[in-house]
Amino acid sequence: MIDFRTSAPVTGSLDVQWHAGWPSPKHDPAPEIQVHAYSEHTLVLRQNKSVHFEAPFLFLLFGNERALLLDTGATADPAYFPLRATVDALIEQWLTRRPRPGYGLVVAHTHGHSDHIAGDPQFADRPHTEVVGPSLAEVREFFGLTDWPEGRAELDLGGRLLDLVPGPGHQEAAVVFHDRHTGLLLTGDSLYPGRLYVQDAEAFTATVDRLLAFCETHPVTHVLGCHIEMTRTPDKDYPRGTTHQPDEPPLQLTTAHLRGLRDALAERRTHSGDFIVVYRD
After folding, report:
1. What does 162-178 look like in DSSP terms, one character per residue?
2. What's the CATH code, domain 25-279?
3. Which of 169, 173, 184, 148 is nearest to 265 (CA)?
4. Residue 204 and which of 75, 82, 88, 101 are 20 to 30 A apart at CA?
């Protein structure tokens, strides 16, 4: 059994050059999915922008009894986005060194927008797999979030615990995941270096307040969202639909960015250097 609790949060690596598309998408030599090992039990995947301009990040976390795949990308067709094959190969590689019969997989989502759930059907017939539906009712029932949007829940992957914090505001069924083993706070589309679309400002502000309170009592090493849309120039983003972003900043943000986001919301401000708030309410 792997000890996921002692010495947590463990140190991981974000020393990675994310593939940011190609000038001619049809001629992009890179694979459809880039895989980076943050640690031996934590993988970060990115869909190639040449496949879909959203280029969402996905997360694969291994526990003793099952793994968690967080989000399934923006493309359904495995011929263009072979997510199931990629995940199966990664799990097989992990199990080769740590054999476990009947090893499970939970497929869940940071929220229910189409660029985060499109690959779900690829896992519909996978053995030992639970796919959490993207609706608010399905999310609440599966994770036991009975006091939504208040309260928290835990997801146990087998000695590896994640805290779940309700995160509506961008989308009604959004959830933020905190991995105790690495200290990663996985914020979906609620915070990332890009355009933060606020559908409900009151709910979004309450989400940020919950996250700030959570961070006061839990160690957070990095804040990882699901997109990169900014350039390295403060307040300057790439236009929506861009398939080649050669001047991308890193994916990781910090809890200080959460506080900056709260200030921006309080002032109804849009530009904050590393992200742009887009109010749609």
Report:
1. EEEEE-TTSSTT-EEEE
2. 3.60.15.10
3. 169
4. 75
Buried b (16+ CB within 10 A) or exposed e, 259-275: ebbeebbeeeeeebebb
Q: Which two tokens stand for residue 29?
A: 């030599």
Count of residues for the chain?
281
Angle at 173 between CA 252 and CA 230, to 5 degrees: 30
Start-to-end Cα distance in the chain: 48
Buried residues in 191-214 as b, exposed as e (16+ CB within 10 A): bbbbbbbbbbeebbbbbbebbeeb
CB burial readout 236-249, b (16+ within 10 A) else e: ebbeeeebebeebb
CA distances from 63 to 29, 160, 241, 251 (A): 33, 5, 36, 24
If phi > 0 it is left, if psi is from -120 to 50 it is alpha, else beta; for residue 249 that is beta
pLDDT 10s per residue in the chain (281 long)? Answer: 999 999 999 999 999 999 999 999 999 999 999 999 999 999 999 999 999 999 999 999 999 999 999 999 999 999 999 999 999 999 999 999 999 999 999 999 999 999 999 999 999 999 999 999 999 999 999 999 999 999 999 999 999 999 999 999 999 999 999 999 999 999 999 999 999 999 999 999 999 999 999 999 999 999 999 999 999 999 999 999 999 999 999 999 999 999 999 999 999 999 999 999 999 98
